[in-house]
Amino acid sequence: MNVVIAMSHVGSQSLGYPFLTDASNRMSRRDFLQITGIAALGILAGCVHVQASAPTAELVLTNGKIITVDPLDSIAQAVAVKNGKILDVGDAEKIAQYIGNNTRTVDLKGKTVTPGLIDAHAHLPFFGLRENGWFLNLQGMRSKEEILEALAQKARKTPKGEWISAWGVESMSMSYLNKEDLDRVSTSHPMLVVFTGGQWGFTNSLALKIAGIDKDTSDPTGGRIGKSALGGNPDGLLANYPALNLVRMHMPLPDEAQSREALLHAANLYAAEGVTTVHDNFFSLGTPHFHRAYFHTTRNGQMPLRIKVWPYIPNASIGKKVQYALFQSHESYPQSKIRNLISYQRESPELFNSLWGGFKMAVDGAGGGLWHFNPYAIPLHQPEELHKMFRLFHQAGHQVSVHAVGDKAVDQLLDAVEASLKEHPRQDHRHRIEHALGPGTLGLDRIQKLGMVICTHPQWIFGWGDKWGGLKARENDIGVMPLRSYVQRGITVAFGADPPAFPLYQPQVALWQAGARVTRDGYRFDPAEGISIQDALRAQTMGSACAGSQEKEVGSIETGKEADMVVWDRDFYTIPQDEIRNVKAEVTMVGGKVVHKSEETTLF
Ligand SMILES: [Zn+2]
Questions:
Q1: 67 Cα–ligand 1 center, Å
Q2: CA 86 to CA 71: how far, in whole Å?
Q3: Ligand 1 center to residue 13 CA distance, Å?
């Protein structure tokens, strides 16, 4: 170590060491003194070449391009890791001081490293159940005939009377299938075939019969039972969660082992794509097996990723009970489905807090269920109910993450946020809008003013842009998914792939689409709203970390942070835009531990 570098911790930016930024100041006093102490004595003694007793790293990555995503977007050559955290990052010569006899030193041979990517919106157990075949996976099937044939094949292999549960219809039409179509497949298996977004599904006659749904059944609040124009009999459509739940409550749920297997399957798929943290924005309160799967796999070290969960709250009355049971009185809900959560919170508060994100709500649906883009869509809550729900959690100091896609849904949510903030002002609340496809300029103004975080998904443009047709924001003045407008206004943007609601979970698709904005058929969707790869990577790392209040621990490669890093086979910053989607993660590390290594890599 030389004196200049030691001093750089004192005033890195003024000394022109862009590798060392604010995070250096978060280094503990002990580490600071350990690294700088002897050299500082050297200054007093007038010596320059005093060897410091620099701490020894357990791992050093060197001779690479380390994209730090620090506040200055610095690029470094090497990084040292100790106790699973970033010890230092900088040029190769400087980092070499941390190499000791037991340090594992990896020559990156010029390869690019980024912070671990953070997927800020996913539904891991359902994603795993889709990928491992628990749901019949319809993703990618392009015609109704193909879907019906896949269902018929499944029926032939399934004992009569057992449920057939399928996921992944990609058509946005809520009349894509009907009861008669599914009855032709089978009348002896109850059947639920769900749209990829999860907001509506189609049933056959047997499923309706088991659920006791007939022409006299009225719509549940916030949901709709499709009925034929002639005679008013159910036509098989169940729109929005309250209607779907009328059938789902009769269906078998995965058991504990299946839940754990699905969760880990999904987590490992993510790790292989360079993702190190996932936010589950629809943590289901009604599935205790999922709760156990999350907590057990995290506690026993099986879970390769960092996880945050936001349980879904269907209405104010359930919200009140859950909030009371979890955060006010543990004793009030001993027999409920959330009793596991209550006991985890009591027995392992640290684990509970590390997993807990806040609460999730929804205002509208998707595709044909968007509010305003589709005049037939049904909002899930009346404005007073939404305000009541939002206020409940806001007032208690929680973060609230709200699904609002259509512009009217966003407006209604912003009304609830504005009123709640007026009643109970809170700094840095981090309330999130999930999706916000076309808020328009008026919506943007309010999003900025109210300090909302936007969590959105550029990959949707590729997957669904062609189906959106001429979709525009209400005022017709800004584009759909206005990323550039968000960034220019300083609004925090997070990215999440939203599987299984969206077919492609690879974050590289988002990094590519944030700039390219091109649909599957080649149409460029509001290109003026594209952002640079640097801004896109920031959204997928620091932006998503902020959305989960994790920005002090993860999201960038800075001293003191968790050593969550990815070595890539190519450099996002220098390859042509169209190649970004094909970049592969060679090695993914969480807390300095390798959780994925590609077969091709020779680095580790
Ligand atoms: Zn979602």
A1: 29
A2: 16
A3: 40
Band of pLDDT at residue 484, cut at 50, 70 and 90: very high
What torsion, rounded to 10 degrees, do the Cα atoms 327, 330, 332, 334 define?
A: 130
Percent of the chain with pLDDT over 90: 70
Nearest to 59 by CA among 102, 93, 27, 92: 102
Residues with CB under 5 A from ligand 1 (ion): 498, 501
Ligand 1 centroid – CA 124 distance (Å): 10
Q: Helix/strand/coil (H, E, C) string of 502-548?
A: CCCCCHHHHHHHHHHCECCCCCECCHHHCCCHHHHHHHHHHHHHHHC
Question: Which residues are 113's β-sheet partners?
Answer: 66, 567
Largest CA distance in the chain: 96
Kindly give the distance from the C-alpha atom of residue 362 to the centroid of ligand 1, in angstroms, as a whole number: 10
Query: What is the distance in A from the centroid of ligand 1 to the CA of 170?
Result: 15
Question: What tokens appear for 282 in the block?
Answer: 């629809």
pLDDT of 20 higher than 60: no
Secondary-structure percent of the chain, ordered helix, strand, coil, rounded to 5: 40, 20, 45
Rounded to whole angstroms, the Cα distance separating 161 from 477 reads 53
Cα(564) to centroid(ligand 1), Å: 24
Measured in Å, residue 514 CA sits from the centre of ligand 1 at 19
Closest to 472 in 3D by CA, of 503, 510, 501, 443: 443
CA of 173 to the centre of ligand 1 (A): 19
CA distances from 343 to 275, 292, 336, 348, 493 (A): 29, 11, 12, 8, 34
Q: What is the pLDDT of residues 88-136, one digit of tens each?
A: 999 999 999 999 999 999 999 999 999 999 999 999 999 999 999 899 9
Measured in angstroms, how far is the CA atom of residue 128 from the centroid of ligand 1? 14
Query: Ligand 1 mean position to 460 CA, how many Å?
Result: 12
pLDDT at 401: 98
Q: What is the pLDDT of residues 246-259, one digit of tens each?
A: 999 999 989 999 99
Per-residue pLDDT, 47? 40
Contact status, residue 114 vs residue 565, Cβ threshold 8 Å:
yes
8 Å CB contact between 292 and 343 = no
Q: Do residues 503 and 494 lie in contact, with contact meaning Cβ atoms separated by under 8 Å? A: no
